[in-house]
Amino acid sequence: MMKSTIVAALIGSAAAFAPAPVAKTSTALNGAFDNEIGAASPELGCWDPLGYVTDGDQKRFDHLRGVELKHGRIAMLATWGYATTWSGARFPGCEDFPAGHETVLKIGTENLIPVLLTAGLLEITWKQKEGSFPGDFSATAFPVGFGPYARNEEDMIDLRTRELNNGRAAQMGILGMMVHEQLDGKPFIFFDKFDIYTPFGN
């Protein structure tokens, strides 16, 4: 059941899988968004095998791209958190918590409520900037964005493309770790844990 739910959630963001501007080519998968950031290759263009945006609906594309970015950002945090907690890192007061999926079952209401409240606060606080690309929350009072790394438009495109690709990899990564944990108790397949860099102590 857990694996089916994870797969279903990831499929929802697959339609927007499209990664650096490239020239159009004549393939069956090409559509109105072949030159959008995220095109994987000239052959694939905007990879949309289920045809969600082949009609050129910009509003739907922006929605799906925003969904993909959100899933990717969450997955990057989840992958990092999964690897570090599996390797032994814990917040104060959580030293006895198990790692991996077992934590979900044993976290307890008193620890789950702050997590849900934080997620809800971020959901209602971070605001999409009107007229900008999907995932641009710079309209929020809280400082977000690429900071000094985006010195010009070329830098911005490069950073946005990297974020998309890293988010896609993280979605596959967290799914793979959870599935392998359920299969044989070894989420990282070839090794048991990571060596954690903790400059402020474990």
Please report the distance between the alpha carbons of the first and last residues: 34 Å
Number of helices: 5
The number of distinct β-strands equals 0
- Identify the quaternary structure here: single chain
Order of helices and strands: HHHHH
Strand content: under 5%
Helix/sheet category = mainly alpha
How would you state the average pLDDT, rounded? Answer: 78
- Share of helix, binned: 40-55%
Largest sheet: none
Model regions low in confidence, pLDDT < 50 over at least 5 residues: 5-30
Write the layout of secondary structure elements.
Layout: H1 2-14, H2 58-86, H3 102-106, H4 109-125, H5 153-184
Helix pairs in contact: 1-2, 1-5, 2-5
Structure description:
- By secondary structure, the chain is mainly α.
- Helices cover 48% and strands 0% of the residues.
- The chain is built from five helices and no strands.
- The chain has helices spanning 2-14, 58-86, 102-106, 109-125, 153-184.
- The longest helix is centred in the C-terminal third of the chain and has 32 residues, at 153-184.
